Amino acid sequence: MGYPSILGLLNMFLNWDRTKPFTIEVIVKSDRIDGYGHVSNHFYIQWMTDCMFAHSAAVGLDDEACSEMERGMAVREMEAEFIASAYEGNKLSIGNWIIFSDGRLRASRQFQIINSESGQTLSRAKMNFVCTNLRTGRPAKMPKIFQEKYIVDSSELDS
């Protein structure tokens, strides 16, 4: 039996909204700070997007694989809540989950950003996607590999 990774141990102690988050870690750098002295909101969205692409790559659907299939999941709608601020030097955990897939055209992801040091949730978001033909930009049926990899494998946790 192997030992959990540092990231795995950290995730056990953070108050995630769902089980089994896919996570990336970020240390806030000075170039992410806006005129108000905290992280500019668009970086939260960037980190969620980075987490989403890292998750896709981890399940075998990196940019190259999607380009070869001429298929990708395009954001159709997004709803975000910014709860608290992050500052230079903060260590953040960005988590995401597939929370819906119809196996044909649509899927949804949920995101959460937590300050790893304080445990405070800083942001939550939900993105709805549509499978798209990358050549035409039009909606297209999910390839079988999307149906197999973009699955709901988590459940909500009580607050």
Describe this entry's structure for a reader.
This protein has 159 residues and is an alpha+beta fold. It has one domain: Thiol Ester Dehydrase, Chain A. It has four helices and five strands. The chain has a five-stranded antiparallel β-sheet. The relative contact order is 0.23.
Any chance you could write out the topology, listing elements then pairs?
Layout: H1 6-13, E1 22-27, H2 41-58, H3 63-69, E2 71-82, E3 91-101, E4 106-115, E5 121-133, H4 144-149
Antiparallel strand pairs: 1-3, 2-5, 3-4, 4-5
CATH class: Alpha Beta
Number of helices: 4
* CATH fold type: Thiol Ester Dehydrase, Chain A
CATH superfamily: Hotdog Thioesterase
